[in-house]
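Extended Data, panel c. Modelled sequence:
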Amino acid sequence: MAGLRRPAPAACWVVAAALPAVARAHAPIPGIEGFYVGLAHPATEPVQLFALLSLSLLLGTLASLRFRRAWAAMIAGAGLGALSGVLVAPVGAFDTALLAMTLVSASLALFPRPPAAALLLPLCAVIGFLLGQGALPDPGALSARAVTLAGALVSILATPLVLHGLCALALGRLRRAVVTTGLRIAQAWILAIALLLLAFLFVR
């Protein structure tokens, strides 16, 4: 009708945004919800989270070749840990062992020089092994457990890559001394928290 004015486009968007619609909060692919649960798993377990952060920060400022070797050792350890968790129940002292390795990782990061490969690679393999064991989901359907485990392993193995990239960006913008001091402060906090968590395990 000629006498009616067409609404402005901006008004149409406002009205459309206010209309109720079907919420799409779940995964678009059926059966993949467990993958997102696995991705978030390391962040929901403090013992695993601090171990992962400490090792990732320790690897953050390594040269590319040293980082790739350490990351490969972590991948191998995580794979073996997940496989052993499938075949055999994880050890009862899992939290104690992982916190002990966190203390080692955070302590090594406080030294001015990176640890030698003879110490760093086994450390990466052991922490990766324990994280792989801890990533194993609760008993259930094999396919669902595999999807959830895959998500957890992706999260575990992607964290060092992300932090290594962030450290590289920081080193490109800031002085190395500033970056390394910040990382040591973070590791000192992780060390203190790991000691508290370890004390709680022995107290209870």
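The chain has eight helices and no strands. This feature is highlighted in the accompanying rendering.
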